[in-house]
Amino acid sequence: FRSWQNPRAKEYRRIYDIPDAIGTAVNVQAMVFGNTGDRSGTGVGFTRNPATGANEFYGEFLINAQGEDVVAGIRTPQPIGELEQVMPRAYAELRAITKRLEQHYRDVQDFEFTIEDEKLYMLQTRNGKRTGHAAVVIATDLVEEGVIEPEDAVRMVDPDALTQLLAPVFDPDAWAALPAVTRGLPASPGAACGEVVFNADEAVRWAGQGRDVLLVRKETVPDDIHGMHVAQGVLTATGGMTSHAAVVGRQMGKPSVVGAGELHVSESERVVTVNGQRFEQGDYVSFDGLSGEVKIGRVATRPSEILQVLAGQLSQRRSDIYGRFSRLLKWADKVRRLGIRANADQPDQAATAYAFGARGIGLCRTEHMFFGEDRIPIVQRMILAETEAERRAALDELLPLQREDFYGVFKAMRGQPVTIRLIDPPLHEFLPKREELMVEIARAEAQGRTDGLEQKRALLRRVEQLHEFNPMMGHRGVRLAISYPEIAEMQARAILEAACRLAREGSKVVPEIMIPLVGHVGEFRDQKAVIDRVAAETLSTAGLKVKYLVGTMIEIPRSVLVADAIAADADFFSFGTNDLTQMAFGFSRDDIGKFLKDYQDRGILTRDPFESIDTDGVGALVRIGAEKGRDARPKLKLGVCGEHGGDPASIDFFEDVGLDYVSASPFRVPTARLAAAQAALARR
Amino acid sequence: FRSWQNPRAKEYRRIYDIPDAIGTAVNVQAMVFGNTGDRSGTGVGFTRNPATGANEFYGEFLINAQGEDVVAGIRTPQPIGELEQVMPRAYAELRAITKRLEQHYRDVQDFEFTIEDEKLYMLQTRNGKRTGHAAVVIATDLVEEGVIEPEDAVRMVDPDALTQLLAPVFDPDAWAALPAVTRGLPASPGAACGEVVFNADEAVRWAGQGRDVLLVRKETVPDDIHGMHVAQGVLTATGGMTSHAAVVGRQMGKPSVVGAGELHVSESERVVTVNGQRFEQGDYVSFDGLSGEVKIGRVATRPSEILQVLAGQLSQRRSDIYGRFSRLLKWADKVRRLGIRANADQPDQAATAYAFGARGIGLCRTEHMFFGEDRIPIVQRMILAETEAERRAALDELLPLQREDFYGVFKAMRGQPVTIRLIDPPLHEFLPKREELMVEIARAEAQGRTDGLEQKRALLRRVEQLHEFNPMMGHRGVRLAISYPEIAEMQARAILEAACRLAREGSKVVPEIMIPLVGHVGEFRDQKAVIDRVAAETLSTAGLKVKYLVGTMIEIPRSVLVADAIAADADFFSFGTNDLTQMAFGFSRDDIGKFLKDYQDRGILTRDPFESIDTDGVGALVRIGAEKGRDARPKLKLGVCGEHGGDPASIDFFEDVGLDYVSASPFRVPTARLAAAQAALARR
Predict the structure, then answer these.
(1) Would strands B119-127 and A271-274 be described as parallel, antiparallel, or unpaired?
(2) What are the tens digits of pLDDT across the range B109-121?
(3) What is the CATH number of the domain that holds B206?
């Protein structure tokens, strides 16, 4: 049982969210031997290709060997097809048994066998791990073959794995232009490009600095898991398709090429020689996990096949995988109850989200529109204004820009609901950093330079005024709009004017205006009054009737406790589970990294609560808020935005609470569609 | 009705927590005239002295005048005693009526009257506002006179007003050494000393910079209220004992001298001439609100009479006010249900708290012990340690110092319970400030200085590692102890060893060890295991049995939601309502000043939620936590620490929730005793 407690087992459990407490079991059985001579052997295999999903018998074996020899990657095994020549009877029996196993379990089988003196023994079978690509291919094939129903296919595919199908691929021309330096086994598909590192700790360190790294090893061992986790890809010199690097790479959806035997890896000198060339730590290397080709240098990547189809760069008919992907998600849409929206701030993001199947925007962050190069000077002028009149003058310049943004987003969503959140971050985020200004001024003073010094000092004074000790709990969200109602006025006007323009063009649009960070019903009422007044003015000027909703984020614990009072006036709630997690735990999202690992090591938390919702705490708040809100207003529209909207475990919880929709980042929309379907099926 | 909406009425309501929504009423009645000639007049008065509480007829009148003339302070009125000579019949009738009014209302009356052609008309009577000193004197006198019962006395005194009796007084020798430059009317007692300012806005600005200011005015007007609120005292050249400055000064418990007619105040030139001397804005002036004496210069203050008695510097018998204060609080103790503890970190604070009547410590913040000059270098060494061994070496040095602290606090509390909170703040609080280091290094680099530069850079690197974006939600409290269990071990050992020493000396002590910032039951269990292990080792080494409790702060919203799970293992809960308010509202205590006034102006919040508990939100969390906790463990001890423990309105709420005790800062303990009694009486 000791293997349950070793560090690599713990790391594995951490990555895959397996609780430490469940324990492990041990079976005791008679031993068979594959190493009694040339009439014996051992092997492993899959009933279908776990990398591509192709319906082909797949695996490896070694004559006169035990199982450990295959997996360890020390001897290079033979492809399983060659077993037919060597031991035809055993091979035929193996094929018959594994086919029956697949039919029985209605899924791809990952099996191990040993042949002792030509007698076949099955050691193990289980549902095979597979890449995201393979998962979609296998599920759609099994439906076609009549083995399973479409709903089984929906149940079978891990929603998280769909993101692998959206990962970038190499630009074919750039890729073709570079000669391959060697070729290994294509263990896990995908385009990988990064700076070479030779051990897992280095990989973690470099990745932490925001660098793309490739982990290059003679062979990987379970201790490398944390390095593989952060790497763009894994490249090894030894090992087969079922070696550690290959198995783990596929599971993680991490591009991997293994057994590239021409690589001479000197991990101590941090250099690789290969066919007369060499590369060192820090050099760029690229490889293709589907072909196994390895190239020295950096190759531009391009969107995955699915994205190319969505962008109209590739026809649907020419992409097999797009057809399967699309079919699977249509099956999912038939069974799910939850609506799926996207978090998108710009028209192009909205268009992508729509193409991925989002039917509505759950969160359009207006302040992201402020960060454009042409806009930030206006925003800064607004912040530095000494009077309301100056501030209004700057806001007047922002108005047409925001109106254009909203028009574009509405249009991209083709009449689906769009929730626009009014300004959220504290104003100092739009100004230079306080400590950088302090350092600049100190340096200029020390050097006796006076050019621009007074302006910098004046800027610093304003930055100091705006400085906050805990900006996450500072002057932001609705608090800003209460101090400066003219900001909310401008935004409400821009939204309504954009809606009027669309109405005039004959398009349908119902803007949902969302007030962020409400904790007190008085805040909501105050701002709703501002919005309603501006809307009445705008619509009367335009001579139009446009329906709009006013609602709020529920992201402050206090708002949950008074949700009934807020719901009396609000048309909708959107649970902002990022902030709600911050406030409920008292964990700053930006600082949790300082202790999260200690919490996981000591078994206090299994998953990062910002990745997957903490059902006992934050989830309890969502449930209370939803119940109180619906008690006060039975038709209250309830959704969730924030990262949890794209996390399958969280989506399952939101299904349980009975929310109307989840909103995820565009690339997580397919995952959310599938996860919502699984959540609905689980409750049938 | 318009007067209800004018800015000064709004400001008044804000200061006294009167909701804007309640509105005002208007009576219509026949007019009488005090300005028909010398047989007419008008006046105001109190049945007892509202400044000192002395049982004497007190007031002023003006012949041939209307009420407004007395209050406005333009004509200087005559003392009410002189009315006896001018209009003996009306005076006798007035005395008889006001005595009856006091008997009827069983409280001091503040009345207004007009005499029209020698006929007395009573215009108004109401319970009189009074200073804290007067409130205690009047209440105890009324009991002695048999007018009211002790419980009525307890009901009658505003608990907040007791703090006035604890305010410092001048050092008599220093005061005597300085000549008085003039003398005014002693409108509100207390020693005031500060830098002179001439208008309310200036007062607010200077006070905001942490300066002590005296507001000096020809006369005050209601627009000055915000300046009076922040000033150490108010000094005016005109006006009587019932002028605006006098009335408001007494209500606020703010030392005030009014009608100091020798002052020639030039508010535009910001200078005062008085008897050939002068002082300007920014000069120090001192005055005594009980004698009316004004002096130019700064006079050292000393503890109030009550503090002098408690410190043994003055005998109980020689202090009338101490006797009354003490009697009133004993009556309060008889009726209250809530226990009263204090927040005290050092033995001397604990002794003061005990003297004020605290019976236990609800919060002993151990990290305050780390900030001592002899300790901070050791603490820094602990933080900068690169290995656990180095860290343990520094902790070993801290152990005897902490043990000594705890021993002193236990001893000062004479066997009453002492709750010790383990380390709470993030470690960077013990290191130099990041931006200051950055500026120092930039300056040294720009000037080409290299001395000590490398050390500073190394220090900055560590400070950068510890830097947090939102330290209030960062690596602090139990999170620190989970990363560095050796800190909690040292603290637990110091607590238990101190307790053992007392046990050996024959003293009783039951330490209550409190784990801060728990949000997850796993955190509590992890640390309780550490404490129990250390306790077992320490007690076995000592060969003693000492009882101790392990409990937690409930200050993180999530902990409320899982309070039942935590209570299964915890001996007590202490609601940390400061942090709970921060997290429930998402308001940083350090940053709320940026928008609180806007919230009050717009009627969203009436009181600062850090001063008085927000019953709908934070209070709801306290109630849920208490209920869940007691469901799981009926005998769970429940208390509250944090500022709300000394706020009367909050104490009333905690009585309602049924907590066992409140813990207040030592100087708020008398207020808490009285408020707890009133809360109990209100529920009879």
Answers:
(1) unpaired
(2) 999 999 999 999 9
(3) 3.50.30.10
Average pLDDT (B174-200) is 91
Give the dihedral sign, CA B68/B72/B77/B80: positive
What tens digit of pLDDT does each residue of B490-503 get?
Answer: 999 999 999 999 99
Contact A443/B438, CB-based, under 8 Å? no
User: Cα A301 vs. chain centroid, distance in angstroms?
Assistant: 19
Q: Of B474, B602, B617, which is closest to A558 when you measure between CB atoms? A: B617
For residues A609 and A628, membership in a common domain is answered with yes
**What confidence score (pLDDT) does residue B253 get?**
67
Burial letters for A57-91: b for 16+ Cβ neighbours within 10 Å, e otherwise?
bbbbbbbebbbebbbebeeebbebeebeeebeebb
Query: Based on the domain organization, do B524 and B474 belong to the same domain?
Result: yes
In a domain, A13, yes or no: no
B41 with B101, same domain: the answer is: yes
Q: Do A403 and A478 have their domain in common? A: yes
Contact B621 A557 (CB under 8 A): yes
Please, is A663 exposed, middle or buried when counting C-beta atoms within 10 Å of its C-beta (0-12, 13-18, 19+)?
buried
- Of the residues B335, B355, B382, the one at which a domain ends: B335
Does residue A453 form part of some domain?
yes
Q: Give me the residue from A442, A561, A614 closest to B616, CB to CB.
A: A561
> In CATH, what number is assigned to the domain containing residue B591?
3.20.20.60
Tens-place pLDDT, residues A297-340: 999 877 789 989 998 999 999 999 999 999 999 999 999 999 99
**Cβ of residue B483 closer than 8 Å to a chain A Cβ:** yes
Question: Residue B6 falls within a domain, yes or no?
Answer: no
Within this chain, do residues B123 and B188 fall inside the same structural domain, yes or no? no
Q: What is the CATH number of the domain that holds B106?
A: 3.30.470.20
Question: Is B555 in the same domain as B666?
Answer: yes
CA of B594 vs chain A CAs: smallest distance (Å) = 7
Query: Strands B339-343 and B661-664: what pairing?
Result: parallel
Do A213 and A323 reside in the same domain of the chain?
no
Tell me the β-bridge partners of A113.
A43, A122
A554-566 pLDDT, tens per residue? Answer: 999 999 999 999 9
ipTM: 0.85
**Each residue's pLDDT tens digit, B18-42:** 888 888 888 888 899 999 999 999 9
Task: Report pLDDT for A130.
Answer: 92
The verdict on whether A364 is a catalytic residue reads: no
Residue from A379, A358, A362, A382 nearest A370 by CA: A379
- CB proximity under 8 Å: B 594-623 to A: 594-595, 598-599, 602-605, 614, 616-618, 620-621
Whether A586 sits inside 8 A of B517 (CB atoms) is yes
- Is B258 inside a domain boundary? yes
Question: The whole model's pTM is what?
Answer: 0.86
Examine the domain organization and report whether A324 and A341 are in the same domain: no
**Is there a contact between A584 and B556 if contact means CB atoms under 8 Å apart?**
yes
Q: Between chains, do B439 and A442 touch, taking CB under 8 Å as contact? A: yes
B442 touches chain A (CB under 8 A): yes
Cα Rg of chain A, angstroms: 29
Total of domains in chain A: 5
Interface of B with A in 72-131 (CB under 8 A): none
The answer to whether A3 faces chain B, any CB pair under 8 Å, is no
The answer to whether residue B460 neighbours chain A at the CB level (below 8 Å) is no
Range of the domain at B258: 168-303
Is B244 annotated in the active site? yes
**Contact call for residues B185 and B213 (beta carbons, < 8 A):** no
Residue pair B414/B359 in contact by the 8 Å Cβ criterion: no
End-to-end Cα spacing for chain B: 38
Helix/strand/coil percent split, chain B, to 5: 50, 15, 35
Question: Are B301 and B169 within 8 A, CB to CB?
Answer: yes
Residue A560 Cα, gap to closest chain B Cα (Å) = 9
